[in-house]
Design brief:
Strand content: 15-25%
Main location: membrane
CATH topology of the domain at 249-358: Leucine-rich repeat, LRR (right-handed beta-alpha superhelix)
CATH superfamily of the domain at 249-358: Ribonuclease Inhibitor
Radius of gyration: 31 Å
Strand order of the largest sheet: 15-16-17-18-19-21
InterPro entries: LDL_receptor-like_sf, LDLR, LDLR_class-A_CS, LDrepeatLR_classA_rpt, Leu-rich_rpt, LRR_dom_sf
Membrane topology: Single-pass membrane protein
Pfam family, one: Ldl_recept_a
Order of helices and strands: HEEEEEEEEEEEEEEEEEEEEEEHHHEEH
CATH class of the domain at 249-358: Alpha Beta
Largest sheet: 6 strands, mixed
Shape: elongated
Number of helices: 5
Disulfide bonds: 81-96, 107-125, 192-207, 212-224, 231-246
Length: 451
């Protein structure tokens, strides 16, 4: 005999529709940003490059996805730098800067959790170090409220067991299901959680095909959660995603997917330290408007009319889009402050000069790695700074050779050179198709000079 699941009323469905949740094809709901997550079973395809969501009463929004470094996976940026590796190669966590000023318990992986969550049988550290205990907190059963079935069993904020009597004709509350035939009403989140709760184990039957219709489906899990148990201060999902972003608001002028913000106007970034992704294209924000952040991984200030770049304290930044601005001159050593930068976009700027104020970079590296370069060779040669320096030195040498070549040819051919363009449909070359040019003029045009 199967367990009896509750029916959803109209008010329940309205509550979900007016939130940041989306309905999935199998009938469960999830966070808008997790609709692009393959592990959330919301119809998402594998290896998505962008996440597009559209909420009732809000404009649709598209954000880029985080690409794992050495595996064919993509993740929403809200799942990056959360102390739990989701990429098979761990590349969503191994570059992240951390805040080591923990006032609670510091997990072995660097995560910080409240001290009162130690030894409570719930894994709050993703490495489980908060439950590496000799003595665990005990659960209390209030015998004064104990009731035989039919009755409702629940857990309070301290995980103590509570009972509430039911009449034999009463149905279970919509947050509970009934163990057959006339057993206790248990919270929905204990069904298919890998633990036998009903006397005859019916709560763990048919879990492979159960899709949590009408409930929140925990990420990468078969556990279901009623909307009233979301953000109740007690995690029911294995990855605690039912307690995600409970106090997070979205700034005015922005549309948010979890920790990914797409903004059309300036806002106080200091109020959103957990933000992972910021697309401020066309917002008018400048580098001076950005507060220091150890969590920001993706940033776009495209089309913000930038001319000058100020220093930014963004140690975890991997993608920086500065395209379509008004930058004319750029010191490439500016980007040395972003030690994890992987993608830099500068297209659409009227750049006239790229230079580095740190010309003796190789000499500095030689001094830093003196007598121990062999131990750092791979990290240096594969790093973005080495590639930038190599490109600049290569470009400098090629431009120098080209300059000498043009000067030499112009001295040999004082009249310059002749270019001929054959119009469409012509099969023979005539003198009027050719134009004489000065090499000096060509050289000045190459560098954008007048004349």
């Amino acid at each position: 005999m199967s367990v009896v699941m509750p029916l959803m009323n109209k008010n329940y469905l309205t509550k979900i529709n007016n939130s940041n949740y989306v309905w999935c094809p199998d009938g469960h709901f999830t966070f808008d940003f997790l609709s692009c997550d393959e592990s959330s079973k919301c119809g998402s395809q594998s290896f998505l490059l962008n996440c597009e969501t559209s909420m009732a009463g809000k404009r649709s929004v598209i954000t880029a996805m985080f690409m794992c470094l050495h595996s064919s996976q993509t993740l929403h940026f809200s799942l990056v730098c959360d102390f739990r590796p989701d990429c098979l190669d761990g590349s969503d966590e191994n570059f992240c800067s951390r805040d080591y000023n923990c006032t609670g318990f510091t997990c072995l992986n660097g995560q910080c959790v409240d001290s009162h969550k130690l030894c409570d049988v719930n894994r709050d550290c993703w490495d489980g170090s908060d439950e590496d205990c000799v003595v665990f907190r005990t659960w209390n059963i209030n015998l004064t409220s104990f009731a035989y079935p039919p009755a409702v069993i629940d857990f309070d904020q301290q995980t103590d067991v509570t009972y509430k009597e039911l009449n034999s004709s009463d149905s279970c509350p919509e947050m509970h299901f009934r163990c057959p035939p006339e057993g206790y009403c248990l919270p929905v989140y204990v069904r298919c959680n890998g633990v036998y709760d009903c006397p005859y184990h019916e709560d763990e039957e048919d879990c492979a095909s159960y899709t949590c219709p009408g409930f929140y489906r925990c990420r990468a899990s078969t556990v279901c959660v009623h909307v009233d148990h979301m953000c109740d201060g007690r995690p029911q999902c294995p990855q605690h995603d039912d307690e995600l972003f409970c106090e997070l608001s979205c700034p005015q002028g922005c549309v948010c997917q979890g920790l990914a913000f797409v903004c059309s106007e300036k806002f106080n970034m200091q109020k959103f330290p957990a933000m992972r992704y910021l697309d401020a294209s066309g917002s008018g924000m400048t580098t001076r408007d950005l507060s220091p952040s150890i969590n920001l991984v993706w940033l776009s200030l495209a089309a913000c009319k930038l001319q000058i770049l100020s220093n930014m304290s963004l140690p975890s930044l991997q993608t920086l889009d500065l395209s379509d601005n008004l930058i004319r001159s750029l010191d490439m050593s500016y980007f040395m402050q972003f030690k994890n930068l992987r993608v830099l976009r500068l297209a659409g700027n009227p750049l006239q000069s790229l230079f580095t104020s740190n010309v003796p970079v190789i000499g500095i590296v030689d001094e830093v790695y003196r007598d121990r370069y062999v131990w750092h060779e791979q990290s240096w040669t594969s790093g973005y700074l080495c590639q930038i320096v190599g490109f600049l030195y290569f470009l400098s040498s090629e431009v120098s050779i080209l300059t000498l070549l043009l000067m030499t040819i112009e001295r040999l051919l004082p009249k310059g050179y002749v270019s001929c363009v054959l119009p469409a449909g012509f099969t023979s070359l005539e003198p009027e198709h050719c134009t004489a040019h000065s090499f000096a003029h060509a050289f000045r045009s190459l560098y954008g000079a007048q004349g």
